[in-house]
Design brief:
Length: 79
């Protein structure tokens, strides 16, 4: 089984939806690599919050992502 690290991030989708959760990274891979360099159409977000509801796993189509920001411990909300 491959080793994975994860990074917490906030994603903003083209429809205005914000998602805060954890994204799996392959060992020594940057968050930007997951979004740009892999052929996968979807990214997996786990332990996520969507519209103030907690979820286990979301599969998000990369074509619907407007921007992604790594979470700073000082960020408290999804606005």
């Amino acid at each position: 089984m491959a080793d994975y690290d994860s990074k917490q991030a906030i994603l903003k989708l083209v429809d205005g939806t914000s998602i805060k959760g954890w994204i799996n990274l392959k060992s020594s891979t940057r968050l930007s690599d997951v979004l740009t360099e892999y052929d996968d159409r979807f990214i997996v977000i786990f332990r996520c919050a969507l519209r103030e509801e907690l979820g286990n796993v979301l599969f998000v189509n990369k074509e619907h992502i407007l921007w992604v920001a790594p979470v700073d411990n000082n960020i408290k909300d999804l606005r």
